[in-house]
Amino acid sequence: MTHIFAHRGSAGTHPENTMISFMEAARVQADGIELDVQLSKDGVVVVIHDETVNRTTDGTGWVGQMTYRQLRKLNANYKFKKYDFCPIPSLQEVLEWAKNTSLLINIELKNNLIPYERLEEKVIELVERYDLASRVIFSSFNHESMATCQQLAPHIETALLYMEKLHRPWSYAHTLQALALHPYHPTVNRSFVEAAHAHRLLVRPFTINKEELMKTMFQYEVDGIFTDFPEKAQNVREKTLRSL
Questions:
Q1: Which residue, 97, 81, 85, is CA-closest to 22?
Q2: Band of the pLDDT at 150, cuts 50, 70, 90?
Q3: Catalytic annotation on 7?
Q4: Which helix (H) or strand (E) holds 64?
Q5: Catalytic residue among 3, 14, 49, 143
Q6: How far apart are alpha carbons 175 and 104 in whole angstroms?
């Protein structure tokens, strides 16, 4: 069955990458959550997508140039102003909550533009602290970072994020010992999914928000989708499975 990952939580209905967004994903019974991590100035692993706080909070500036205390003062309610103060969570906060759920957790390392020093080690340490290795997937557009994660923690799944079509991506993935491909959805068709599966790779395309595209991906039998609307995806999956 195709797993439904709530992209930045239930980001279509709640402020992205906040605790209420992840809690909403759990409430609607998504199979997993996806979140993005960076480092604060004082070395705390924080959950935020952009390298700056400008888009999703009421502040301005670079994440890596602000302390955790400074980041926590910002309101990350983004475009969902009906919600009150939503702080930027730390990865520790999310994992401490998630350990009491059955959610899969896709942690995207946002180090493709800024090479945060020791981000991989800090993230792995937190995952191990909460005994969540079996439920965690590391992903990144920075494939060197995925190779580092695989070397440091070979028992935790790594996945390669990418935008453009790749020639024989399964061969490339095997060189990095990655177990999954996370491609941009326009690069995915049925033959691609079948070929990846034949090469023992999981396929989880992003970001699948339209109902017709959800249906198509379920019909392709991809291993997971990332969506801002996990509740809608649940309903579409049920309908699609009934029609097969």
A1: 97
A2: very high
A3: yes
A4: none
A5: 49
A6: 25
